[in-house]
Amino acid sequence: MNNQLPVSILPVPFDWGAGRRGAAAGPEAVLHAGVIRRLQQLGYRVQLRSEDCLPNTSADRRTAMQLKHWGRVLTINEAIAQEVRSIAAEGLFPLTIGGDHSIALGTIAGAAASRKRLGVIWIDAHGDLNTPETTPSGNIHGMSLAAAIGLGDSRFTGIGGYSPKLAPERIVLVGARELDDGEKKRIRELNITCFTMHEIDRYGMGHVMEEAIRIASADADGVHVSFDIDSVDPGEAPGTGTPVRGGLNYREAHLAMEMLHEAGVVTSADVVEVNPLLDNGQRTARLAVELIASLAGERIL
Ligand SMILES: NC(=[NH2+])NCCC[C@H](N)C(=O)O
Ligand SMILES: [Mn+2]
Ligand SMILES: [Mn+2]
User: Fold this and answer.
1) N or C: the chain end with fewer CB closer than 10 Å?
2) Does 2 fall in a domain?
3) Is 279 annotated in the active site?
């Protein structure tokens, strides 16, 4: 986000890509926590996209063991892709608020439609690099990044009408601390840059983000930030469906967002996996708003 571009917020109340319900209430909680006013205070023009532009998928019962609720996930993401594509075409900054992380299938399909060399910074406790062959759960939110690079079921890799959306060399993972065996193998084979919590502890978040920004934006025509709130430590962000201890602390998460703003390279973003049903009051939704503000340029001084 940079101050010239008006922001279009796309709320996606959808959680069929996750193993537990609740993230569908994420957008309402983040809106209630004041994200629009916070962005306006920073000088942005803000438009709230109506969620009526997204289909109601509740009647769709298509599912499979290794691809749970694939009908609903596919339908919503084709619509998200169209919407994000239009938002970008209208000259607005697309900020999508989830929803579980399966919705990144659509946001990346929409963002990469007009940016053939899109970089991605994927801030997450997980890799979301599973395919139907490697998934331990069948939950599609653990497969969205793999699908964006063209791996997995063709219905999903083909969302938005083209594949692949991303080149592995412009993808950077930040904050990983729970990777499945198949994901580890894939990260090594494809040479995807992955700054795990080990690198963050060892070299510091400042250094890690400098590198992440450099790698994702080198030779790129835009950078998408996909921020899974479970990247943050569960002590700070308890309201999420797949918490993993040992995550980013409060200042590290803010520093990452502040540096992304400063770099001026981010062209679209999503914030996902806020689950108000599991939250301690509004702690996690409020944190999401603060982090969005940092990404939008809010500073201490
Ligand atoms: N977006 C997320 N929170 N993903 C969690 C994925 C967990 C696990 N790796 C799986 O494939 O099921
Ligand atoms: Mn994720
Ligand atoms: Mn995650």
Assistant:
1) C
2) no
3) no
108 neighbors 165 (Cβ within 8 angstroms): yes
What CATH number is given to the structural domain containing 53?
A: 3.40.800.10
For residue 55, give its domain range.
7-295
4 pLDDT tier (thresholds 50, 70, 90): confident
Assess whether 128 carries a catalytic annotation.
yes
pTM tops 0.90? yes
Rounded CA-CA distance 157/145 in Å is: 10
Is 141 annotated in the active site?
Answer: yes
Neighbours of ion ligand 2 (CB under 5 A): 101, 124, 126, 128, 228
Please give the ipTM for the structure prediction: 0.96
Into how many domains does the chain fold?
Answer: 1
Query: And the tokens for 177?
Result: 């601390």
Q: Concatenated DSSP letters for 242-255? A: S--SS-B-HHHHHH
pLDDT tens column, 99-122: 999 999 999 999 999 999 999 999
Q: Which ligand is nearest to the CA of 140?
A: 1
